[in-house]
Amino acid sequence: MTTIREQTITCPACATSFKVHVVGSCGYAGKDTDLRPQYWGLDPLPLFVHTCPRCLFSGYGAHFEAPVSDELRQWLVEERGLGRLQSDAGSRRYTLAARCREQAGDDNLALADLYLRASWCARVEGDAAMERLSQRRAVERFQRALEAGLVPPDEQTAITYLVGELSRRLGDFELATSYLARVVDIDWADLAGRQLDLARQANDENALMP
Fold first, then answer.
1. Which residues contact 59 (CB under 8 A, 6 or more apart)?
2. Which domain holds residue 187?
3. Residue 119's CB: how many other CB atoms inside 10 A?
4. Of 151, 171, 191, which one is at a domain's C-terminal end?
5. 146-192 per-position pLDDT tens digit
6. How many other CB atoms are found less than 10 A from the CB of residue 42?
């Protein structure tokens, strides 16, 4: 089960202090085939990222503990680069975090992971348009990371699989079959093969891990 506690954190960009809920513990049984955990009890995903109520600086707890550059601070505080908070939904906060990290110069692999998690949150929120938009953004950045050699060797199979599976869910079956067919690692082959069959059938439905 998910446990949470209240904590006060301070924005490193504008020095605003505010209260957030922090995940103490959580567990899950099973995953969707895009690797989203099926958590027991309260879904902790939206609670892993925080958003400053003043300048909208967003990120994980570790991002709030690290200094920010003068350029990022100016973009957030003076230029209002993230605008105004339109929604406190988890999918929006992960998107804000991705935009912050992009402005901070993080690589495409880190950005793709944030957009992937935004899509996971959007699915639970019932926001299909946001889920698909986040999936497209994740696919684009995962592809760039693979092409640029940014993906560590022990993660390449998982990322290749994710590009294929997210593409299948988006209805891009040609891209999906191309990437899923590349997955030959013995630990992933059965899952990738099953999703490859779905892609060849033009099936874009949500699916659960066997």
1. 49, 50, 97, 100, 101
2. 153-210
3. 26
4. 151
5. 999 999 999 999 999 999 999 999 999 999 999 999 999 999 999 99
6. 15
Are 139 and 158 in the same domain?
A: no
Q: Would you say 50 and 59 are in contact if contact means Cβ atoms under 8 Å apart?
A: yes
- According to DSSP H, which parts of the chain are helical? 61-64, 70-73, 90-104, 108-125, 128-147, 156-170, 173-180, 189-200
Q: Is residue 130 located within the same domain as residue 181?
A: no
Considering the domain architecture, whether residues 10 and 73 belong to the same structural domain is answered as yes
DSSP 34: T
Total number of domains constituting the chain: 2
Residues 94-132 have pLDDT tens digits of: 999 999 999 999 999 999 999 999 999 999 999 999 999
Q: Which amino acid is at 53?
A: P
Q: Which residues of 23-35 are buried (b: 16+ CB within 10 A; e: fewer)?
A: beebeeeeebbbe
Backbone phi, psi, residue 7, to 5°: -145, 150
